[in-house]
Amino acid sequence: MPRRQFNALDYSDPMLVRILDAGEQCIRRFGIRRTSMGEIARVGKLSRGSIYRYFGTKEALVEGIIRRQQQDFLNRTEAKLEQESSLADKVTLAILVGRKDMQEGMFGSLAEIEPETLAMMFLDPRFYRRSLSFWPQHIRMAQAAGEIDAELDVDLVADMVVRLAASLVMVPRMGVQLKTRKALRQYLQQMLKLGPA
Questions:
Q1: Which residue in 65, 104, 137, 187 has the fewest CB atoms around it within 10 Å?
Q2: In this predicted structure, what is the pLDDT of residue 161?
Q3: What CATH number is attached to the domain comprising 90?
Q4: How far are the Cα atoms of 82, 88, 127, 135, 196 from residue 70, in angstroms, in the given order?
């Protein structure tokens, strides 16, 4: 089993899970702006006091919900990447999983209800840092395999991969049409040919 390395909250706490589940239900239904702590308490059959013991503000609770969603995405993706051989294949898979998540679940609902809020979420430094931490090990593997220049700075390559993947998830239909896995993989193979000219 892949090691689940992205957990930051104690998800074994049943009360915490109830709060996050209720918050996620509300965000799916109403969006972030229209979700209140009172509504989360009602949906989760919780007292407001119970929620505030875990999250002092609505902003902190929303961040906890988004963090859990992102960690789940990273863990699911990590498990699938073991079947992929090259960096281009791995980035392709991550983008396809991301696109599916953007059509379904909480992120899919936000894309319909509050697209501007979803866009701002991708610009959040915390969201970026968590995404960035995912890629260095895969970039080092690509360097060891001779796919990309071993002298390249791993952090800079990771930054480029995150930016590229985020844009291809968020705006899949703009510019070059990359609807199929094959087309996306060919595009990324060109973009990820990193090394001396």
A1: 104
A2: 93
A3: 1.10.357.10
A4: 19, 21, 8, 14, 34
